[in-house]
Structure formats: structure tokens, C-alpha cells
Amino acid sequence: MPLVVQKYGGSSLADAAKIRNVARRIAKTRKAGKQVVVVVSAMGDTTDDLIKLAYQVNKKPEERELDVLLSTGELVASTLLAMALHGMGLRAISLSGAQAGIKTDDAYNKARITNIEPVRIFKELTKDNIVIVAGFQGITQDEDITTLGRGGSDTTAVALAAALKAERCERYTDVDGIYTSDPRLISKARKLRDISYDEMLEVVTYGFKSVQPRAVELAEVYNIPFLVASSFNNNAGTLIHLAKGNVNSHH
User: Fold this and answer.
1) What gap in Å lies between CA 6 and CA 226, rounded to an integer?
2) 172-203 residues labelled b (16+ CB within 10 A) or e (exposed)
3) Relative to the CA of 145, which of 72, 181, 228, 242 has its CA 20 to 30 Å away?
4) Is the sign of the CA dihedral 153, 28, 174, 236 positive or negative?
5) β-sheet bridge partners, residue 151
6) Residue 146 and residue 136: Cα distance in Å, rounded?
7) How far apart are CA 49 and CA 55, in angstroms?
8) Alpha carbons 225 and 223: distance in angstroms, whole number
9) How far apart are alpha carbons 247 and 243 in whole angstroms?
10) Is 170 helix (H, G, I), strand (E, B) or coil?
11) Which of 158, 153, 183, 182 lies closest to 170, judged by CA?
12) Measured between alpha carbons, how far is 131 from 95 in angstroms, rounded to an integer?
């Protein structure tokens, strides 16, 4: 059965109604005959709120404890999404980054994924579960929780897509694709149907905040087609993939 990795950003999961909306979208993919692994960000402004709270308690919070604290935002989102899917009669299970087998170095707050051992994910997929993974986090050799820095859930999603040999990675947010310029500022901005990895990296370097550069780099290395679309409508998004004419342009 083909496998797809879907990633949902914080704005897509900001409240109970939005979480149920995401659950419906996942259910639709599942019913279309695909296995689904979902990566979630924390709900809305949770991460910022947790950072604020930490600094109210201690002006210099220790990095290790801060990472453990920040990792809880994604756990909240993943468990609630699993509950929403259960409410729709679907089998689903939430996993932390550590349970999903995401290993990182020990650079707290900006850890890099060193490898992924997705044993548990595969086990849950064979039980017909939709697997929901808390993004933005992993675990060190010493079993300490780390976070991957801003936009880290994008990196989690692409790295998992590579490790699971998914047919593609889909990233859903409040923007329905990649535009020639910021559509909120420039009315003539056009949405692109597709864009190459290299062009996307250029766009990101010039300050387009919608996708994390590390995620685009990883997608290029492993040749994972990467769709950017909205979770709030069914408009076709933008597909980031190998430029035409490159070898193995079909994953």
C-alpha cells in the first residue's frame, strides 16, 4: 500500500474544530487506500507561550529542561489528533519523536537528526494504524529529549518520508502553495504549480518563511516530492521536486 507523510502546522491545529478538520482530511487520504504517517507541530502559539513561561520561572532556563518543556507542545497536538481520529472510527496512535525512533545529536534547541530507526512506526502501520508523530523533536544517545529549532517539524516530516520510503511528503499550513511573491502584500502574486528544489532553496534564502530550508535540502538529497498546500481548502498546492531533465526525476 502506498505510504504518504503529511505534516500539519500549528495554525492548522490551533483549536478543537481545526483538529477535527485535519482528522477529516487524514481520513480521506486513508480511505483513498494510502497508509498515512502524520507529523504535527504544536497548536497555535503553544511554543511561544511555553518559552515565555520558562523565562518567567527562570531568566536563564537550562537548555536541557527547556527542550523537554518545548517538546510537550507537539505531544499535546498529536494525542488530540489521535483522539479525533478515534472519534471517527479510525485506528490511530500517537508517538513522541523518541518513540518514532528519531535520533539526534545533543545540540539542544537546534539539534540535527543523525538517523531514524522507524521500527515502531512500521509495527503500528502493520496493525493498520494511522501513525501520528510529534514533530520538532528527537532523542540523543543518552536518551535526552532535544528539539530541532524553528520549523523543525518540516525537517521531521521529510526525514521520516525518506526513512519510510514514502511516495511523497505533504505539508499543510494556512498558505495554499508557493507564490512568486507574498500574496498578502502583492495582489499580482501568482501561485506556482511546481518548483524545483534549487529554486525553492533560493526563494527560502530570500526570506520566504513558509518552508524550512533544511527540509528542502533533505527532500532534494532523498528525492522526495514535497507538496505545500493549505489545510483550510482543497486548492491544488505547489509541488517541490527535481528539475525536469535531471536523472531519476521520478521517485
Assistant:
1) 10
2) bbebbbbbeeeeeeeeeeeebebbbbeebbeb
3) 228
4) positive
5) none
6) 8
7) 10
8) 6
9) 9
10) strand
11) 158
12) 7
Residue 196 cell numbers, joined: 524545483
Cell numbers linked to 179: 507564490
pTM of the model: 0.93
The type of residue at 187 is: S
AA identity, residue 94: S
The type of residue at 28 is K
* 96, amino acid identity: S
DSSP 180-203: SS-TTT-TT--B-SEEEHHHHHHH
Q: CATH says 3-241 is which class?
A: alpha beta
Q: Per residue of the chain (251 residues), give pLDDT as tens.
A: 899 999 999 999 999 999 999 999 999 999 999 999 999 999 999 999 999 999 999 999 999 999 999 999 999 999 999 999 999 999 999 999 999 999 999 999 999 999 999 999 999 999 999 999 999 999 999 999 999 998 899 999 999 999 999 999 999 988 889 888 777 788 888 899 999 999 999 887 776 667 888 899 999 999 999 999 999 999 989 999 987 655 443 44
